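Long-time lurker. I teach an intro course on protein structure, and each term I like to show students one example going from raw sequence to a predicted 3D structure in token notation. This year I'd like something fresh instead of my usual example. Would anyone be willing to generate the tokens for the chain below so I can use it in lecture? Attribution to the forum is fine with me.
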Amino acid sequence: MADKSKLTPVMQQYVDMKSENPDALLMFRLGDFYESFFEDARVISSALGLVLTARGTDSDGNEIPMCGIPWHAADNYFGRLVRAGYKVALVEQMETPA
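-- Reply from a regular --
Happy to contribute to a lecture. Here you go:
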């Protein structure tokens, strides 16, 4: 992966959470979707037959792979991943105390 310091703040958060959960597919809640990036996006796209898209580029100019699941269908998709033998970690958005 390219230099983390050159990623957007959201992508930096994703990379931080992924480093804390390296053995799980990380699903990061962004609005109405759970999004996954980098290699996790490739795995999820392949395992679930979902479209692999991209979200911006890394510091080397390479597209960042992205795969998204609508929040209202998440239970179905997460269940399919778990039944296929994957461990899934969810990251929810939280507002600041202020």
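Some talking points for your students: The first strand starts at residue 25 and ends at 30. The chain has a mean pLDDT of 89.
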